[in-house]
Prior knowledge:
Strand content: over 45%
Distance between the termini: 41 Å
Number of helices: 0
Helix content: under 10%
Shape: elongated
Mean pLDDT: 96
Order of helices and strands: EEEEEEEEEEE
Radius of gyration: 14 Å
Amino acid sequence: QVQLVESGGGLVQPGGSLRLSCAASGSIFDINAMGWYRQAPGKQRELVARITSIGTIAYSDSVKGRFTISRDGAKNTVSLQMNSLKPEDTAVYYCNADIRSYEHSQYNVYWGQGTQVSVSS
């Protein structure tokens, strides 16, 4: 069984920084891509950043220049460095991954449980 576990969320003041991490574990054969989504109350879940196995990166326009996504293939982890945080960044952040396991021949999408990020004075 494959699972994703996020860590690093918390409460910070505007202008502060947080670093989120996500670790994939289980019967993993290959990871095609990993990324981060977020959802604020009353709003749709949106893509924050995504990185593929060959290093292709995509960011939401709202976080470009402030957030940086990175990966460690050997450890099956992805991180999101968040700088210059704004109140509008407040949301539950979810790790997402496209993974092929030893149990299935195809790639499947997996989600973490989510971690709360709150930006407030």
